Amino acid sequence: MKITSRSRAAFAIIAATTLAVSLSACSKDSDTPAAPGSNAGGGVGVDLPRADSDFWNAYAKYVPAKAKDLGVTVTSTTNSQNDVQKLLTNVDSLVAQGAKALVMAPQDTGAIASKLDELAGKKIPVVSVDTRPDSGSVYMVVRADNRAYGTKACEFLGEKLGGKGKVIEFQGSLSSINGRDRSEAFKECMTKKFPDIKVFEEPTEWEGAKAQAALETRLTTDPDIKGVYMQAGGVFLDPTLQVLKQRGLLVPPSDPKHIFIISNDGIPQEFDAIRKGEIDATVSQPADTYAGIGLYWAKQALAGVTPKEGPTDHGSIVIKLPNGFEDQLPAPLVTKDNVDDASLWGNAKS
């Protein structure tokens, strides 16, 4: 998806203007009145997926501020700690505490289906942020195009390596649609466009320790690795930099020993690493807008609004899914050329 200056401007003012004005901002049929028996006026329960990721910790900090901007009452917040069983327990707890709509980010997108259908039967709408459940009824999914993440990473590394060499890929959990989308798109692109690049696929379950061990092993067996694709900078950045520093490989791009690195997330720590020349790029997925748009759609659901496909007023596109709708948000590639762009959430002043 092409990111224009107009789209970035829309993101920058979303909390202060478009979202806070009314329920009519995002959907083409947003003047739909509340459905009979809807949960209009109810509260929203929020489950945070984990606390071991800088990206998700940033998202967690945005939730209360965005809720205030939108006039949304958050009944309670839980953290499922990357454990689907805890998520199921947390969901029941949030409902018991009076939540009439839920915002969650299930990390295992295949194991949540029955709970989603159970909630739909109770007329409790669910907004899934960042991840798209494989099945089970959802009111709205709020996420960026994760296949584009993998493709952008492939093209960036392929060009930097001149189409030849070795690359290690830290795959996210393949039980997650995000991990599968990024991995499949990266592989398809490499196979088609850069067949002379050898890719070492390393499953990590989104765990930094597994990525660190994989990198140490690969640098021992294949010391000529010249590229790294980190599918989540929030958990992989620090372990990766530690290994490279220990091996004397944390050097600027001008040094022949430099290993080109592209990440996904867009956290401030990645931006600092880009400025220092430690990594080369990331794809910024908007933690602030994930929080704001996720709560926005929860508010829409409580008002009985039925989403419709098409462009939105915040620079995204809503598409129809077999099990609901998806609001596809843009996610720009960030390099040294645009790392200081004030519209990027990773540059926001706290």
Automatic annotation (TrEMBL):
<comment type="similarity">
    <text>Belongs to the bacterial solute-binding protein 2 family.</text>
</comment>
<dbReference type="GO" id="GO:0030313">
    <property type="term" value="C:cell envelope"/>
</dbReference>
<dbReference type="InterPro" id="IPR028082">
    <property type="entry name" value="Peripla_BP_I"/>
</dbReference>
<dbReference type="Pfam" id="PF13407">
    <property type="entry name" value="Peripla_BP_4"/>
</dbReference>
<dbReference type="InterPro" id="IPR025997">
    <property type="entry name" value="SBP_2_dom"/>
</dbReference>
<keyword id="KW-0732">Signal</keyword>
<feature type="signal peptide">
    <location>
        <begin position="1"/>
        <end position="27"/>
    </location>
</feature>
<keyword id="KW-0813">Transport</keyword>
<dbReference type="GO" id="GO:0030246">
    <property type="term" value="F:carbohydrate binding"/>
</dbReference>
<feature type="domain" description="Periplasmic binding protein">
    <location>
        <begin position="44"/>
        <end position="304"/>
    </location>
</feature>
<keyword id="KW-0762">Sugar transport</keyword>
<protein>
    <submittedName>
        <fullName>Simple sugar transport system substrate-binding protein/ribose transport system substrate-binding protein</fullName>
    </submittedName>
</protein>
